[in-house]
Amino acid sequence: MKTISLMGATGSIGTQTLDIIREHPEEFSLKAMSVGKNVVLTRKIIEEFQPELVSVQNYIDYNTLKEEYPHIKFIYGEEGIMETATYEKADILVNAVLGSIGLNPTLKAIEAGKTIAIANKETLVTAGHLVMEAASKHNVAILPVDSEHSAIFQSLQGEKDKNIERLILTASGGSFRDRTRSELENVTVEEALNHPNWSMGAKITIDSATMMNKGLEVIEAHWLFDLPYEKIDVLLHKESIIHSMVEFHDSSIKAQLGTPDMRVPIQYALTYPDRLPLATGKRLDLAKIGQLHFQEMDFKRFRCLQFAYEAGKIGGTMPTVLNAANETAVAAFLQGKIRFLQIEDLVEKALNHHQTVEFPSLDLIQEIDKETRKYVNTLLR
Ligand code: NDP
Ligand code: MG
């Protein structure tokens, strides 16, 4: 029996992680979880899974829930997430919270020796060097949940790092794949939230439309697989069937294929190096799909991908700025405060405004993260 602490239990990845726990009650047990503001769903999860520890974002919800469920320990705020992440009775931390708020708790969980199943990409983008360094120091596994990184991780099983030629991350193209830049001027939030292949949280769906999601994934891959950016490529593949690939020196390419169902990579992170049957969900029917398409990436069309490569190569605090500016800009777009193309303008301005600092400490990263959000918010006004 593997015991689990789940950060972001009410989100898209969080609820799909719960699907897997529900489907395999002999294998997994939910011990602790953190949620944001969705109290209605939190109640349902508590009643079904009976976790021992629950962290909520706000004090007011904490007060209500602790009256309703006196047998459960409630906590709140950032401290609460931290305690969830390090809960002593959990072996694995699934980090499915949204945004760089996931960083601190992840570092604490690593120090506490927890295996980390990481969905939250902002954590690795913001401070990949600290996370990977801590993981190696404490001999802790960081298992990817993101489908691209899971595909690469699966393709690398049994292979030697020295034989890797390059990683090929596939990109669906998001909601606006077939639109020109001028057609993006006046797109609405609703249109942007309509992803052709994947059903995901709002922020990552917008990131997919701007291609920033792929940019964040390139940086994530750089840290997870310890490869230079020159060895990480992106290929447009509109069907989202090949989740990513690894090319080796002898020209062989290995890939992992599957339906676009996040439960597969989530479950693999939980069962690695073993596998379990997926209780529900479809099998891949390649004959029915018939054709798969591939296309070179257009960096002028998808400027955020270009920004991410540049920020990643510069390194230091630059990826922190990329991420914080993007989080702030996407939130503003979702609130209807800016137009779609302004997201990339704001990110570009924040990057140009910043002078990178090499090998930043956790304190400095958090300071730069805050400063960047503030700077982008001033641009918004
Ligand atoms: P969602 O928006 O669906 O869920 C986010 C979760 O985080 C919710 O549980 C939310 O709580 C919680 N949360 C948000 N802000 C806070 C906060 N300030 N304090 C505490 N909890 C908070 O996101 P996704 O599940 O889509 O994505 C989560 C992460 O996984 C992201 O980093 C994303 O990039 C990554 N990812 C997602 C994939 C997907 O298919 N969705 C695929 C690969 C990676 P509540 O709703 O209760 O407010
Ligand atoms: Mg992905």
Automatic annotation (TrEMBL):
Q: In what pathway does it function?
A: Isoprenoid biosynthesis; isopentenyl diphosphate biosynthesis via DXP pathway; isopentenyl diphosphate from 1-deoxy-D-xylulose 5-phosphate: step 1/6
Source domain of life: Bacteria
| Catalytic reactions on record | 2-C-methyl-D-erythritol 4-phosphate + NADP(+) = 1-deoxy-D-xylulose 5-phosphate + NADPH + H(+)
EC number of this enzyme: 1.1.1.267
Residues annotated as domain 1-deoxy-D-xylulose 5-phosphate reductoisomerase N-terminal: 4-128
GO MF annotation terms: 1-deoxy-D-xylulose-5-phosphate reductoisomerase activity
Q: Which Pfam families match?
A: DXP_redisom_C (PF08436), DXP_reductoisom (PF02670), DXPR_C (PF13288)
Q: Which residues form the 1-deoxy-D-xylulose 5-phosphate reductoisomerase C-terminal domain?
A: 142-225
- Family, similarity comment: Belongs to the DXR family.
HAMAP family for this protein: DXP_reductoisom (MF_00183)
Its biological purpose? Catalyzes the NADPH-dependent rearrangement and reduction of 1-deoxy-D-xylulose-5-phosphate (DXP) to 2-C-methyl-D-erythritol 4-phosphate (MEP).
Q: What is this protein called?
A: 1-deoxy-D-xylulose 5-phosphate reductoisomerase
